[in-house]
């Protein structure tokens, strides 16, 4: 069966509510404009793009047709135009994907993603990155990547006061990045349009080799994800939350699968699959306070 093409898809239609609220809270942080100013002053966007162009393989239909085909299909399904450039970088021992470039986005995947993912699983992975671009999240993602350097710069130029402010932004930023993964996973599911594919993609992202994927391991993983959904985060103290979400680059595959299954079980995924008007839905997240240390 051909996959649905979401012409005119507005990202608010699949944005996770935790993502909406955490982003609203991040935008209210008083030191955020200073950090963004430093990102622009030091040309972080240009440097990250140069790093990719100067050190990675640009993907074309001729050299890596599997990657190019899956990426083109994902962009078409999620309605991202123009299609960004795609690059392949060296193996790291685990699956990695990335998107950079505020004005001119580009997407990168590593060798493990190309070798370990099937075509349909690549659709899921690319859908996650396309969501970052369509949602205009790239600037904040890049800010997180260089936050350690930015903290030192701000601290040295504001006589120690900026470093303290930047630390507060860092916690809010990493919390939001974790919440934004839930939105990315929803986009990934819209791209591959099969919850079982999304789950195996997340299992591989967590490091499980393909030879261990079978009916039993998948069923047990789903059961673990559903069990995880019963955890009440408010019972965890603030230090635990901070330490957990400072590891924002960790796959958190069980938690992400848990949230994705909730979306499917709620019927909202099926509604979106059947919806005809994809262009607009009201977003009220900005009017609500998001206390990232006591919410979620």
Commentary on this structure:
With 296 residues, the protein is mostly helical. It is 59% helix and 5% strand. It is globular. 38% of the residues are buried.
Calculate Rg over CA atoms: 19 Å
Q: How far apart lie the N and C ends?
A: 37 Å
Q: Care to count the β-strands?
A: 4
Secondary structure class reads: mainly alpha
Sheet with the most strands: spatial strand order: 1-2-4-3
Low-confidence stretches: 284-288, 292-296
Overall mean pLDDT score?
86
Principal-axes shape call: globular
The largest sheet is:
4 strands, mixed
Domain tally: 1
What share of residues is helical?
55-70%
Order of helices and strands: HHHEHEEEHHHHHHHHHH
DSSP strand content = 5-15%
Number of helical segments with 4 or more residues: 14
Give a short summary of the structure:
With 296 residues, the protein is mainly alpha-helical.
Helices and strands, with pairings:
Layout: H1 17-27, H2 32-41, H3 44-55, E1 57-58, H4 65-78, E2 85-89, E3 97-100, E4 106-110, H5 111-116, H6 119-134, H7 138-145, H8 147-157, H9 161-192, H10 195-205, H11 215-228, H12 238-245, H13 253-266, H14 268-274
Parallel strand pairs: 2-4
Antiparallel strand pairs: 1-2, 3-4
Helix pairs in contact: 1-9, 2-8, 4-6, 4-9, 6-9, 6-10, 8-9, 9-13, 10-13, 11-13
Features:
296 residues, mainly alpha
